[in-house]
Amino acid sequence: MASVVVLQKLSASADFRDKLLKALQYSAKLAAALLRRWSRTRQSEHVPTLQSAAKTISTARRFVTLLRWVKYIETLREARDEPHAEVRYLLLLDFCLCTAVDALQDLVTLDRLGFFGKPNRLPVAVESLANHLDIMLAANGMTVTTLRLVRLRQERKLAHSKQASAGKVEAVVQAERLALLKYTCDLLKCLDSAGMLQSPRQREKPSSRPSGPEGLAAFAAVLSSTMSARKLFIKALK
Known about the structure:
By secondary structure, the protein is an all-alpha fold. It contains 9 helices and no strands. The two termini are 14 Å apart.
């Protein structure tokens, strides 16, 4: 019965579905990149199928995350309760960036559906802006996590000096380390989405042979989404 309750919680979570779809999407992209790089024929017959699957899953993710920005009100509560001013300001920035990115992505989704009259009426700059704000969001998350790690390490030293139980602090430190790894992966993925890992020549003349950063960014996205899904799964168990 408990397992059914957990599944119900997960099925009701748009975030969990999004992370699973994201893992599938970038797994397909990673597999396609590896096949393109190592295939003897340089163009495996499975590559177009994998690339098409990645695009289809990406479209599905857009519908799953539609209006997701509404939930970020929780970040405001977290910022309000944050005792350290520098982290509080960064959490407020996180709220603004999260809301802006998801709202812009919603506009792109509605535009592709023809909500504004004809499909693809919005300028490409709208999605480009969302991608660049996403980079700022990942970098901001890394900064917040780093500040928290510095503070937690100080608390851990204090706990040891007082011969207090540091087990709880250590668990939080490990969680923040994983969060830092996740944000690093997110940053790499966002840089790739914005085309910042490619040289101008590569952007002008895409090669049939993928660049190293492309596969690395796909792997980072798979790792990040898997970590997020795991976190949501553990939360559902509680």
